[in-house]
Amino acid sequence: MKAPLSWLKDYVDIDVPAETLKDMLFSCGFEVEELTYLGKDISGVVVGEVTECEPVEGTHLHVCKVDCGQKGTFQICCGADNVEKGIKAPCALVGATVYATAKDHVTVEDVTTIKKGKLRGIESEGMLCSGAELGVNGDMFDGADYCGLLILPASAENGSDVKPLLGLDDCVFDIAVTANRPDCQSIFGIAREVAAVLKKEVKEPCLAYTPKMDNYEPIKITDEAPDLCPRYIGHYVKDVKIAPSPLWLRKRLAACGLRSINNVVDITNFVLLELGQPMHAFDLRTLDGRQINVRRAKEGEKIVTLDGNSFDLSPANLVICDGVKPVALAGIMGGLNSEIKDDTSEVLFEAAKFARDSVRKTARALGQHSDSSAIFEKGVNEYTTEMAMKRALHLIEELGCGTVTTLHADVTTPYSKTENKKMSVSVQKINALLGVEVPAGDMVRILKSLQFGVELNGDELALTVPRWREDIDLYPDIAEEIIRFYGYEHVKGTFLPSALITNGGYNKTQKAELQLKKNLSAAGLCEISTYSFYSERDLDALHIPADSELRKAIKILNPISEELSVMRTFLAPSLLQVAVRNLRRGNLEGKVYELAKTYIAKQLPATDFPEEKPVLALCMWGKYDFFDLKGITEFIARDLNTRFEYRPAERVYLHPGICGEILADGEVVGYLGALSPKIGAELALDRSVLLAEIDYDKLTEHARQFKYSPISKFAEEKRDLALLCDKDVSCGEIEKEIFAACKFVTEVRLFDVYEGEQIKDGKKSMAFTVTFTPKDEDISERVDGFVKKILSNLRYKLNVELR
Amino acid sequence: MDIRQKIKEIENSAHEALSSKRAALADDLIKLKNDFLGKTGRISELMKGMRDVAPEDRPTVGKLLNDLRSAIGEKFDAAIEGAKAKELELRFKKEAVDVTMPGRTPETGAVHPNTLVKDELVSIFAGMGFEVFEGPEIENDYYNFTALNTPADHPARDMQDTFYISENLLLRTQTSAGQIRVMENKKPPIKILSPGKVYRSDDDATHSPMFSQMEGLVVDKGITLCDLKGMLDVFAERIFGKGVKTRLRPSYFPFTEPSVEVDVSCFECGGKGCRLCKGTGWIEVLGAGMVNRRVLEGCGIDPDVYSGFAFGMGIERIAMLKYGVNNMKLLFEGDIRFLKQFKD
Asked: Which residues contact B172 (CB under 8 A, 6 or more apart)?
């Protein structure tokens, strides 16, 4: 929201510097995001009178003597075609800063400092300036658009600063307005707040006009969609003379960045900026049947808006129609068919309230946005709708650009809000919410400064809420108004003196999760955080078949891009991306993990809350192999006091020979393996990538509370067994049999695998260290017996022999 | 041979032994010492010969023998000590290492900065009695908006900001959604923290379509705006350092009233104004406010009996401020050179 200081001064006597006002607005909830001084780049430019002007032979130049009053008289060489003796123009003295323009003499390219110089050998001590060189256009100063010198009035005092004369001493506040204060989307709305914060009166804009009575042919206005258009006001103006607007009005628009079009259009824009009520003017001769009908568009109905864009409409779009056709897209833009033209002589002014979500949905659906739609989306109030119409009619009279008639139609509906809200609030309750003792007198003063009607009866404040304050709902809203102006510095920290003690902290699951993360990190892995969504193409890259469960994913209806459109059902694609990214950046080895949710729909398309299933995923790349990865999964099992078993498995994106399932207590809880070399080659990876995923909920189900067991006073016994077995016997099978054969076995550790010269074909040698742990008896004499039993078991079950 | 001669002889031979080449190592010296002074050593042997000495000579000879024993003993002991010292000296030299050579460290990883910040926040508020509640990331319209007093035509509900997966289901845009789930199931006193991922349709240098928030909620009797301020003062000092202050200023959230934006005094420059705080001396860190009466009512909590406050902050934002990370993307890229730097 842009508010020029000079415009705010129309309504409030502002007697503090702009910077101070900026801080004051901030304190009451209006952050000034930018404070722009219009003439900030211009300095050292004064009024100069050309007292001598001689052409330079063979050039377009003139040598001038320029009288700059107290600053002196300077010889200046000037190339403008409108330089002549006797004129006054802005004179940039040596050391002055002005804009450098492009060859078109209009486009500002840079800020330049004026130096003493020579043009065609003639000394020049300064420069006479055009409007563009000072950042001034024709809306800010008459004649400033001329591509030559900006001619100043004869009354301008030689040597005086040109900035006040050209309006360059103004500044513009760019204010962030919160969504609850649409009434402040206007200069006057901000002025009300400025008045309150400065403890001054606000001066209301003039709304007076004298309508001319006559026997006018009536104009019929109907509202068939009161839910989308709660209020519609139309007023007929005749004898319209389309002409340029006066300078004061053009200057106001220019300060807010709008170009002048013509008097009637400028009035609607002025009212939009000043009061925050979008208005529209229809050329009455184009309205079939002299009527306006507000209704939902018919399926397939068309409109071409002022900017020439054409739209196919549906009943979701609200349109303003005449007796036959749509003439405006309600609240967004007028139709080309009813546009104000240079010969327009009769105008119907519109000021209405359109429902904010209706305007928003139509603007978004059609991709058609305007200053008007931006305001309606935030919301307008009917107090301002009424006020805006009066203000526009006043300006018609003031500008003398038409005759205001008595023909006025004001359509109210059951959705209209024409009454002030009344409420009664308790002083004590407000203070109890704030925790601050604000005296009732201060509350009254503050609320009155915000134009509330206030009556204090004991503890009760009887309030009449201004009609433009539709955000005021319950007493906490009043509490906020009060503390906004009483000052947040009165809010002193207290520490819940009245609250009960509660027991805080992580629960067991949350604590375990954090502990696991810390342990994995201590074990050398980095935790990562990746997006919860990926692309169908990421699944294609992993060769996930079309009918795979992994493809049964929830899709975002309105994704930012296809890349981020599918809620993930597993983490492997995200982790693989991280590995690839690291490898491409030269991080040739790495180990990472992520604990994050996957999203499993109960049915598709999703109509109910899906299952959010946390998964612990691991990824390693570079120098690591399968057993480094498995070392980590075993570490995880140990961390949770459980034991994993592994069995060969297949997964489409993993190496068929380096892939296993992870089981806990017989249940599959995850998988691990190496990325298929085929996919690695497709991704141009020259290093191996390992992946594992574990269902975190299942994992925690199998976690056991650790139990202390007393250390036996009897020593552990260890035996090394070198076994000869068939090649296809797995380590896991042997381990399992060893455990099964003797209850004292607490650890079986493979330490060597050998195939080669001394081993028969089809056989291999595997060497294990077996640990026997006694409980409360000495087993040293019995270990040889245990070993015998183990060996006979192995021989019988797996055809394994001692080497 | 006369016993005195023998004594002389032993004395000489001991001196010889001590100066011989054999006497360089401590272990050899100990053996030599034993040859003279051990139980079966030459002096002990001589002692046995005392029987043959005339009784009147015994005291003199006895003294000579004792003197010899202690003299030789002292000399050997000194030689042994000297040899040991030399040997140790040699060993020191031999075993000396270049202490500037690298140590063998176990490989270490790191937890994600978000986890660090989340855990630090939890530990601060846990001490004040807050429990941790984690709600679902896929929410429905009711929990994410309606119950949070966000009317149906509120701009925040627009498709531009929210990711939808069906007409009614969406990716939650704020952890505030968790507030409602807690208040529906738990009666005051309530003190909860609700950390988690949230999603908004925004993607640029300072916005990410997925980020994390931490929501705090207190509902009890007599809770005031001053209590909110007091709690945030503690938070600011614990997270950003001693002496960091908070400042409240008016703001708007549909589910709180009054609503405030909370700034902390710049911990980089102490409030004088620097690049981090863009010269203002203050840094915006979170939004907060007194829980809207309509929200309490909707959850079946009587707003005339109970009041409360809520606050919400972006975990990435706190992490970026705390660690000086200037690009949010870094937090989601998984570059191990970035991640490995973070320490608890």
From this structure: B135, B136, B137, B138, B139, B143, B144, B196, B198, B199
* Among A494, A496, A507, beta carbon nearest to B132: A507
Please list every residue in chain B whose beta carbon sits closer than 8 Å to the beta carbon of residue A607: 166, 168-169
pLDDT for A537 equals 95
Nearest by CB to residue B221, choosing from A493, A498, A533, is A498
Residue matched to tokens 């650009």: A401
Cβ contact, residue pair B257, A29, below 8 Å:
no
Fold of B113-339: BirA Bifunctional Protein; domain 2 (3.30.930)
The CA-to-CA distance between both ends of chain A, in Å, stands at 88
Chain A residues with CB under 8 Å of B278 CB are none
Gap between the Cα atoms of B165 and A566, Å rounded: 10
3-state secondary structure of B130: coil
Residues with Cβ within 8 Å of A185's Cβ and at least 6 positions away in sequence, in order, are A1, A177, A276, A375, A378
Residue B150 touches partner A, C-beta closer than 8 Å: no
Q: Which residues of A332-360 are buried (b: 16+ CB within 10 A; e: fewer)?
A: bbbbbbbbbeeebebbbbbbbbbbbbbbb
In chain B, the DSSP E strands lie at: 131-132, 138-140, 169-171, 190-199, 210-220, 246-253, 256-265, 282-291, 307-314
Q: Does domain A43-166 have CATH number 3.50.30.20?
A: no
Q: Given the structure tokens 């900001």, which residue do they identify?
A: B161
Note the pLDDT tens digit of each residue in B271-298.
Answer: 888 888 888 899 999 999 999 999 999 9
Choices 3.30.300.30, 3.50.40.10, 3.90.550.10, 2.40.340.10: CATH for A220-412: 3.50.40.10
Q: How far apart are CA A135 and CA A112, in angstroms?
A: 13
Cβ burial, residue A671 (10 Å; 0-12/13-18/19+): buried
- Domain residue limits, chain A: 2-38+171-198, 43-166, 220-412, 421-489, 508-702, 717-802
Give the gap in angstroms from C-alpha A456 to the nearest C-alpha of chain B: 22
Burial level of A217, CB count in 10 A (0-12/13-18/19+)? exposed
Computed over every residue of chain A, the mean pLDDT equals 93
CATH topology for A421-489 is Phenylalanyl-tRNA Synthetase; Chain B, domain 1 (3.30.56)
For the ranges A91-100, A643-652, B6-15, the lowest mean pLDDT is seen at B6-15
Q: Output the pTM of the full model.
A: 0.86
CA distances from A561 to A176, A534, A789, B152, B202 (A): 29, 10, 65, 26, 11
Cβ separation A612–B166 shorter than 8 A:
no
* Cα–Cα distance list, A9 to A23, A172, A188, A750, B268 (Å): 17, 12, 10, 88, 39
Rounded to a whole number, what is the distance in angstroms from the first to the last CA of chain B? 85
Rounded distance between C-alpha atoms, residue A644 and residue A636, angstroms: 9
Could you write out the DSSP letters of every residue in A44-60?
Answer: EEEEEEEEEEEEPTTSS
Given a cut of 80, whether residue B206 has pLDDT beyond it is no
ipTM: 0.87
Per CATH, is A717-802 categorized as 3.30.70.380? yes
Q: Quick check: bond before A774 cis, omega within 30?
A: no
If you measure CA to CA, which chain A residue comes closest to B222?
Answer: A498
B104–A contact, CB cutoff 8 A: no
Contacts of A507 in chain B (CB under 8 A): 131-132
Of A356, A503, A554, which is closest to B153 when you measure between CB atoms? A356
User: Is A788 within 8 Å of A731 (Cβ atoms)?
Assistant: no
